[in-house]
Amino acid sequence: MEIVSQSLAILVVFALLATALLIVRKKGWRAKINPRVFEARAKLVLTARHSIHLIRIGDRNLILALHPEGITFLGDMPPSSHCEKHPEAVSREAR
Predict the structure, then answer these.
(1) Is 66 exposed, middle or buried (0-12, 13-18, 19+ CB in 10 A)?
(2) pTM
(3) What are the domain boundaries of the chain?
């Protein structure tokens, strides 16, 4: 009798999980990032596994180094109008 009650409890848990998954998929709950708040401005590839990125978050421009061990914060860059994406950089990213 104990096996039946445990099996029923497991079945109820799986049914609740499946219901929650269906609701999440139907509602489309995902992290939505506003493109005006977060933007990748530039990327400089140093090697196949090392690169430097300029990221804009809100009114801050962050310089980040990406490497196999993780990410290193290199510094802030003051917000300015001349820090726009170069058209040549856009064409290189598309490749």
Answers:
(1) middle
(2) 0.49
(3) 1-30, 38-94
